Amino acid sequence: MIHLPDGSGRTPARGGNAGMSSEYLEIRDLRVTFDGFKAVDGVNMTLMQGDLRFLIGPNGAGKTTLVDAITGLVPATGSVTKSGVELLGMKVHRIARLGVGRTFQTASVFEDLTVLQNLDIAAGAHRGPLTLLRRRKEVLPGIEEALEITGLGRHRDAKAGVLAHGQKQWLEIGMLLVQNSSVLLLDEPVAGMSSEEREETGNLLRRIGGERTVVVVEHDMDFMRAFATSVTVLHAGRVLSEGSVAEVQADPKVQEVYLGTAAAGEHDIDSAAAPSGEATTEGDR
Ligand SMILES: Nc1ncnc2c1ncn2[C@@H]1O[C@H](COP(=O)(O)OP(=O)(O)OP(=O)(O)O)[C@@H](O)[C@H]1O
Ligand SMILES: [Mg+2]
After folding, report:
1. pLDDT for res 227
2. Does residue 268 have a pLDDT over 90?
3. How far apart are CA 83 and CA 225, in angstroms?
4. Which domain of life is it from (predicted)?
5. Fewest C-beta in 10 Å: which of 6, 18, 67, 142?
6. Better pLDDT: 68 or 139
7. Is the full-model pTM beyond 0.85?
8. How far away, in angstroms, is 60 Cα from ligand 2 center?
9. Which residues are within 8 A (CB) of 35 and not within 5 positions of it... i.e. 6 or more apart?
């Protein structure tokens, strides 16, 4: 069962419940095949607004491919609907415009531009060419808000290239916020971060997560345990387990995948964060 972040233990229902809005992302029988290889093999997932969902699983489980399929970067079959609107088959920019945003395992900010310019460009992705042609002197309210929420206000005039690793990831998240993304798919956002940066990132995700749907692809199990409201475990392109952190950690199938044996009771998935090697910090595949 998926628990809502309010700790009430209620199960989220499509159409909203108890003040939750009806924003949701529904994935049905999603499949991605590369030359006959089933990278995503019939995934079903329902993501509600307010959910901070962690998507975990061994290297090669299909996590990034799943995000790629949702955002239109790889062809897929099945169905992905955002509040009822089918996304599959849409072009990448249309999906982004519908409020489904993602980050990549390697930060992709414009290093030679300032923080403000990066945010301005991201905001511009949402505007028509005529608006873009007009000179903008004042900082748009949405950009101020993004600077505030990501804590990057002090660095607004710094070139993105000189930012610390963590700050670049926060800038990317800020860029999704100014694009009005209501579904944020973050691919290993804390890889390579210091523990302080992880903590700050977790708090940032909480701040933005209340009104949005946030999916975090992660190998860092400590980070997951501290911040996840729900977890989906992917293995060999399929959903192996889903539920609260405690439910997933207690699932023998999950322990088996992470440890190679269901009987290794003294371990938990925390001690086997990246089963086939260290969590990747760069390069997706
Ligand atoms: N463009 C592609 N062409 C062929 N095979 C691919 C392609 N992209 C991914 N794959 C394969 O699909 C599988 C899933 O890859 P994916 O990158 O989604 O895994 P992941 O769960 O994100 O792994 P990691 O934790 O290492 O990032 C892997 O076996 C990968 O080699
Ligand atoms: Mg990946």
Report:
1. 96
2. no
3. 28
4. Bacteria
5. 18
6. 68
7. no
8. 7
9. none
